[in-house]
């Protein structure tokens, strides 16, 4: 997609469709629901790599790390296209003339790296059948929520989040796109017992990027020099990615993503929820959290 073509979208200021429609009890955009048969029947391949996350968990960051690994630290190669064109977002449908993730994925030569936010039970079965590798990244609930709230304000394809108070309620009840955060992180956590899934945490990546990138290298059976590894750490840091137009989503027209409301690369910090939650909201959230996360071995850090 050329930038000229994208600008056409900017001129076309009709409001985008933000209708939602459930699939199997999970809230999705209407366009995803309408395309569901095709998405469900997507044919994965054994050499596909899937980056799976709940929304706002650090997907784009992980995509950039993976791309830099696959291109052995060659920055120019990693700037060949926007994140969403390098790694098709499987279930996402963009307004024409932009490509839908599914169409891009089908056209893309192997080996492909793909992105999804689907909960584990909704992943197209071919990924399990083909034993494709999956990297899952999880981020603590409160920072995910705050990031999701600001993203919903600036992304004109998502439903209006209302006030933060209202969004906290919707998030706790799983009444947000891609469903319950709690079920998502737990479902993928359990799936790693039966499938090649590298389960990473945003907070660990922030605290010790070298260690987490090394885990990805091992999982992908790659070996890179110390020099390239350091280059990857630098070029995938928040400050550098924020300035990288191929990774910061600024090439999309403001009629889709309005960075003047809230930038895509917003804060990139564990613990930012503390600047948003009131004491009362926090207490209520924690109480509910304990119930929803009872019985799992999965734990999160809400600050580092
Ligand atoms: S999406 O739209 O669901 O794919 O969003 P996703 O990429 O998963 O998450 C966006 C949040 O990740 C932050 N981010 C980063 N944090 C640290 N380091 C790097 N390099 C980085 N890149 C992206 C981004 O700022 C969003 O988080 P918030 O808290 O809103 O800043």
Give a structural overview.
- It is an enzyme of class 2 (transferase).
- By secondary structure, the protein is an alpha/beta fold.
- It has a domain at 19-140 and 176-256: 3-Layer(aba) Sandwich (Rossmann fold).
- The chain has 16 helices and 6 strands.
- The chain has helices at residues 3-11, 30-34, 36-40, 59-70, 75-78, 83-86, 101-107, 126-129, 141-154, 164-172, 181-191, 202-207, 209-219, 226-235, 238-242, 279-292, and strands spanning 20-23, 26-29, 49-53, 113-116, 133-138, 197-201.
- The protein has a 4-stranded parallel β-sheet, with helices on both faces. It has a two-stranded antiparallel sheet with strand order 1-2.
- The longest helix is centred in the middle third of the chain and has 14 residues, at 141-154.
- The chain is globular.
- Mean pLDDT is 95; it is low at 1-8.
- Bound molecules: 3'-phosphate-adenosine-5'-phosphate sulfate.
- 3'-phosphate-adenosine-5'-phosphate sulfate binds next to helix 4, helix 9 and helix 15.
Descriptive tags:
304 residues; alpha/beta; Rossmann fold; four-stranded parallel β-sheet; two-stranded antiparallel ribbon; 16 helices
> Are any ligands bound, and if so which?
3'-phosphate-adenosine-5'-phosphate sulfate
The CATH level-2 architecture of the domain at 19-140 and 176-256 is identified as 3-Layer(aba) Sandwich
Q: What is the chain-wise order of helices and strands? A: HEEHHEHHHHEHEHHHEHHHHH
Major sheet: 4 strands, parallel
Can you give the mean pLDDT? 95
CATH top level label of the domain at 19-140 and 176-256: Alpha Beta
Could you name the CATH topology of the domain at 19-140 and 176-256? Rossmann fold
Spatial arrangement of strands, main beta sheet: 4-3-5-6
């Amino acid at each position: 997609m050329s930038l000229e073509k994208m600008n056409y979208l900017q001129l076309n200021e009709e409001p985008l469709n933000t209708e939602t429609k459930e699939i199997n009890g999970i809230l999705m955009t209407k366009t995803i629901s309408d395309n569901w048969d095709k998405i469900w029947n997507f044919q994965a391949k054994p050499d596909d790599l899937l980056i799976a996350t709940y929304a706002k968990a650090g997907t784009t960051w992980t995509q950039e790390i993976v791309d830099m690994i696959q291109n052995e630290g060659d920055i120019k190669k990693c700037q060949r296209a926007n994140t969403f064109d390098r790694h098709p977002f499987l279930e996402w449908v963009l307004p024409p003339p932009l490509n839908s993730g599914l169409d891009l994925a089908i056209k893309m030569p192997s080996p492909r790296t793909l992105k999804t936010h689907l909960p584990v039970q909704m992943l197209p079965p071919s990924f399990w059948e083909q034993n494709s590798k999956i990297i899952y990244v999880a981020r603590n609930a409160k920072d995910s929520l705050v990031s999701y709230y600001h993203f919903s304000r600036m992304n004109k394809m998502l439903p209006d989040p209302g006030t933060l108070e209202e969004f906290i309620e919707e998030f706790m009840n799983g009444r947000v796109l891609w469903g319950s955060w709690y079920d998502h992180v737990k479902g993928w956590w359990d799936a790693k017992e039966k499938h090649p899934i590298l389960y990473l945490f945003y907070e660990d990546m922030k605290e010790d990027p070298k260690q987490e990138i090394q885990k990805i290298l091992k999982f992908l059976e790659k070996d890179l020099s110390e020099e390239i590894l350091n280059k990857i750490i630098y070029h995938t840091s928040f400050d550098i990615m924020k300035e990288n137009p191929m990774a910061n989503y600024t090439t999309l027209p403001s009629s889709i993503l309005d960075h003047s409301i809230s930038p895509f690369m917003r804060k990139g910090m564990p613990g930012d929820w503390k600047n948003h939650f009131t004491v009362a909201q926090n207490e209520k959230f924690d109480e509910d959290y304990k119930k929803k996360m009872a019985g799992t071995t999965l734990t999160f850090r809400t600050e580092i």
